[in-house]
Design a protein that fits this description.
Layout: H1 9-13, H2 21-106, H3 112-142
């Protein structure tokens, strides 16, 4: 049996066989179409990006204005809520003070008014005592 080491025609000449040229040509066109699609997508993507940036620049002042308005409205609402809470807290504190006062009176503790009256009486007694001591000192000084 004889073995041949002959190369096919394509390998001998370096050119594709005539039957494979249309297939290679079609594959090359598919390859080029893919590259073209990639290039077009890149160009369109870049244009789209720049268009979106410009639209963003045009829209940015509107967003800032809406943000400022929303911030001002939030401050106003927060201020109103704070004022209402302060009012409620004040009323609750007054009610609690009144309840505590009533409870302390029931237990026999003196009120502010009771303590003020007692303090006034002590002041009067102190003044009277000082007066009496001064009078007694004068009498003793008058004795021979």
């Amino acid at each position: 049996m004889a073995t041949t080491t002959e190369l096919p025609d394509e390998e001998k000449t370096g050119a594709p066989e005539p039957a494979t040229e249309p297939v290679v040509d079609a594959l090359r066109q598919v390859w080029l179409a893919g590259l073209g699609a990639l290039a077009a997508t890149g160009q369109q993507g870049e244009r789209l990006f720049h268009t979106l940036v410009e639209k963003g620049r045009e829209f940015e002042p509107t967003v800032h204005e809406h943000g400022k308005k929303a911030g001002q409205e939030m401050k106003h609402v927060a201020s109103e809520v704070g004022a209402r809470l302060k009012g409620l807290a004040g009323k609750a504190e007054e009610a609690l003070d009144e309840k505590v006062s009533v409870a302390l009176q029931r237990m026999g503790f003196p009120t502010k008014e009771d303590l003020a009256a007692l303090s006034q009486k002590i002041d009067q007694l102190t003044a009277r005592l000082e007066q009496m001591q001064a009078e007694q000192g004068t009498r003793e000084a008058d004795k021979p």
